[in-house]
Amino acid sequence: MHFSIPDTEDCSNETGSYTLFKISINGAHHCSVRYSQLHNLHEQLKNEFGEELPSFPPKKLFNLTSKGVEERRNQLEKYLQIISQNQMIMNSDCLIDFFTNAQQEMFTENEFDVDLLVYLMNYQKIVVNVKSHDQTEDILEKVMDELGLDNNHVYYFGIFLVRKDEVDSIKIVRKLQDFESPYLSLQNANKSEKHRLIIRKSYFELSFEAELYFDKVAVDLLFYQAVDELERGYITPDNESIHILEQLKNKESKLEFLKLVASQKFYGFMHFRSCVINYPEENIKANLKLGNRSLVILYNKKNAEDEIVLKLTRIKCWKVSGMSSYESGNQVTSQLELSIEYLSGKNKLTAINIQTDQAILISMSIQTMVDEILLKKDGKKMKRPSDRQRVRATQFLTRNKSLVKSGSICQNNESETTSLTSNTNMPDYSKNDLFENEDFITNDDL
């Protein structure tokens, strides 16, 4: 998870003035909270994890100067970045509830019913009636229940936020996490440009796929995505398979199609365009493909496309710098760079720097592949809905310093709140409307 606090906001109420720290998670503005709220989170985490936690930035007796606020912003950012490296802390009810409640606190309305529109990769629309504050995993489970997917296979898929791209027609922004509400996140993202929610598979490890072949609904979802990626040229079939795949697709022999396409080059990869990279030479314009435990660099060399394969197991470490963020839906642009230390030879580490606005998504995808390797090594299976057992109820400290039970946030904020209204009159979108027509970026269905 990638945390940053790019900005602060000075606020005041009847009790005095205070500062809000604007937290971005995975490149998107998620919430704005006070120091006291983060301190309360730390105290709850300390009760659960004790010495595993880093020290928290200390309280001050007097009001902070602008220099002091900047110092505290930097300290809080480092604190969040440190705890984000501990998977047990990141998966705790305490932390998930905090960021869920903090996002909800930014909006003025109480929770209401809404018809949420989610797309499949064949552009089929699924409309589910949910609460505006429902978390990602609640909505994912509801969508999959509507489709009739086996309950054990729900988390092989995920809900992704996407937007229109001038070249690809669709560009993945990020996978939604459980500490956010898809409805709130979608409305916030739509303030800058039109976005959609799409169901895609959420794994890279191809050995996981065999289990899904016995589930008709899972086969349908995999088939829709494979056909879409094949048509976009993301998958490179060999000459012998091109005609066979076309026949199988036309006959809707989905399982046979999937078994054949799974053997083709770049099946199961994510694709990233318009990157600038310093490897194997400086300032190379390249496209990246990530999958099959590797990062593939595609670039032009002497008027021909060449490729370099970086093995995941030879990546020593990686980091993202120059975090971008969204301030109330408006993107604050900054240059993102993914830095990789790669073991390119015996005892030889090579620094590879990749400049791309999708650096955070690439970093998260690399982490997903690493997690899947460890999952498979330990003989464990993908998470199931039955694994979501809550340990205990948590409390949330609001901006006005009231302690409330998690999930019962009162919408009474003094600043930086956003008004949302439910809109159940969704227009009818076809494939062209969603990905190829300019209607995709209008505000008709906001």
Notes on the protein architecture:
The two termini are 29 Å apart. Helix 9 runs antiparallel to helix 10. The chain is of the alpha+beta class and 446 residues long. The C terminus is likely disordered. The protein is built from twelve helices and 19 strands. The longest helix has 19 residues. The strands form six sheets. It has a seven-stranded antiparallel β-sheet with strand order 12-11-10-9-17-16-13, with helices on one face. The radius of gyration is 23 Å and the shape is globular. Strand 2 and strand 3 form a beta hairpin. Helices cover 30% and strands 29% of the residues.
Summarize the structure.
The protein is of the alpha+beta class and about 450 residues long.
Key structural traits:
446 residues; alpha+beta; seven-stranded antiparallel sheet; three-stranded antiparallel sheet; 12 helices; disordered C terminus
**How far apart are the first and last residues' alpha carbons, in Å?**
29 Å
The helical percent reads: 25-40%
* DSSP helical segment count: 12
Strand content: 25-35%
Low-confidence stretches: 324-332, 410-433, 435-446
Number of beta strands: 19
Class by alpha and beta content: alpha+beta
* Shape, per Cα inertia axes: globular
Give the averaged pLDDT, no decimals. Answer: 86
Biggest sheet character: 7 strands, antiparallel
Instruction: Give the spatial strand order of the biggest sheet.
Output: 12-11-10-9-17-16-13
Gyration radius, rounded? 23 Å
